[in-house]
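ugh finaly. both done.
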Amino acid sequence: MKDMWRKLPLRKKVVVLLTLLCIGLTIGYLPEPYPHVLTKEEIKEAEAVSRSQTEVLAHNVSLTDQAGHSVSIQSLYNKKPVFLYFWMSWSDMAAKELPVLDEMYREQGREVYFVVVCLDRGEAARQQIESAWPYDMPLYFASMETAGIYNVYEVPQWFMIGRGGTILDKHAGSLDRKQLAYSLARSLK
């Protein structure tokens, strides 16, 4: 073996030594498992913490039902999911959407509270809306202050609130029936 080594040209000796040095360094300095790489359990724990810190809870506001009774939104979403829809009588878009909402209410009104909130001001306007209300779904009234608490600055606008008060979805503008159906189904999971 010594004879073979002596007969090798200097270049080959250097290559062999460098190769052995590289192998030795690789074996001697194998990296430890990365401390910043999370296990599956750690990822699940982090997702749960992240989810709880980013959830937006619905504000507890007081609404007035058709009978004039005060209803706390929290008393509703603590029992089952709530579909909260803000509208005003002058909105053509809302006028087109209310029949669709009433149909969905008849289909899913047992599993989800449909809270259709009119923001019209004045007792006379409210009485007129109430007397002409042709739908099965309940009608509620609220002040513009309540709309401000929910950051409703255009109508119609709706929120899907899960059981317990987490806002699952929010949408302003025209109602997309497929999106609403998806949101309702998601709230029931």
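ok and the 2nd:
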Amino acid sequence: MLVDKADSTGDRSEYPLVDSHVHWDQIPEEQMDEVIRRAKTAGVHIALSAATGPDSCRRLLHYQQRYPDFLRIGFGLHPEYESTSDDVLDVLRLIEKHRGYICAVGEIGLPYYCLAEEERSRPPSGSEKDRLMPFLQMAAMMDLPVWLHAVHERTLPVLEMVLQAGCAVPCFIG
């Protein structure tokens, strides 16, 4: 746990920073060394990166093995992106296979931004729940926390499903 120990001027340069949400897989490989160098220069000691789908999981696994002291990864299926039932099964298999390399299941949740505005406040559909619940169950079974995509009025339904599945959710305030 990081404690805010800024001095009276607000300087935190002596204290490690954790970047808690970056989709590192979206950075071109040829730019990774420079991006990580800049992050470290800025004081970032560890970056947490959430996958968005099967290809994203594989790319993050490659990066995590390349930068094991810097990058921590989670495997998931982002709810705002189109996916198939095969994608769900593929990511679940990747979670099982690479449990030793991941520290969370995510990014997972319910769609919000891809919905029409009038649909955003409706309860989750059966298919949305059916897509999310296997990831929550896998996280609970493997004793992994979940990194959630929980937006506005769709946050409470996501948290209710998390509670039902018995998962842990890290909380970042700020």
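summary for the 2nd one i guess: The chain has one domain: 17-165.
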